[in-house]
User: What shape does this take?
Amino acid sequence: MCLSAARYLCTMPLSLLPYLRDVPVAGGLVERFQPSTELAAVIDRFYFVPAGAWAGPTMAFSDGIPTLVFTMTGNQVIFSVAGNTFRPGPAWLNSPYLEQSLMWQQRKEALLIVRFRPAHGYHLFGAVAPGTGDRHCRELPAALGQAGVALLRKVQQHDTPAGKIAAIEAFCLAQCIKDTKHNAMLERAIALVGQYGGNIRVQELALKLKVTCKWLERNFLVNLGLSPKEYIRQQRFLLACLSLSEKTDIAALAQEHGYYDQSHFAKDFKRFTGKAPLQYLKVAGKAHD
Assistant: This one.
């Protein structure tokens, strides 16, 4: 599959990011579902992405937050990372960090996405957060063990988003969620990174939260599987990427998002997408006439 033919979205497609950030989307196709009251501290939200809302091949990406993705009919989605192709099955857990990764559909397939609260995505199922060296999304049974096998079996018994969501919630409620600890400080750290658009240093973040850099490092690694520096870098890139348009002044955009200069922005952009910003715009069909 030729990279130059790709439309650049994300696995939680990049087109989904405005929904994650509650930005109004004109003519949006993605549906959002709130979790039940009992699970509001564990699950952030559910998203239903119709088959027509994403195409392929697309650039796969993760924003670091623990996220489960289910295909609605069980068709496999294909991924390619560094030229290696794999099929994670009908459900997978996102990698915390991805670079230059493609995904596409064998057949048109809708997705049901489960976004967890940062401290609960792995620990709820007795799993350990993957390290940043794990650049692949992982098939659900492999990621969560027997809990993943049981969850997938229950979800596949239903055909509608509502039915699958009900099955997921019932399963999560049975996982002794009363024993899970709420990490309000970690959520506040993540909220601050979002508030600053990723334009904040780890030391500055620690100072604002009145915690040590070691505390941030430990809590990000244990709960998200990546360091605070990596998380901040991803957030800055995602927001800068979303800001690109046919009228974009690359130099101004780089400065706005806290890059040292246009060259720094272009280098970071190429690291994540394999393309320079203007090449990205051309591939995405947004280049200047």
In short: Strands lie at 31-33, 43-49, 58-60, 67-71, 77-81, 84-86, 91-93, 101-105, 111-116, 138-139. Residues 3-179 form one domain. Residues 1-11 have pLDDT under 50 and may be disordered. The longest strand covers residues 43-49.
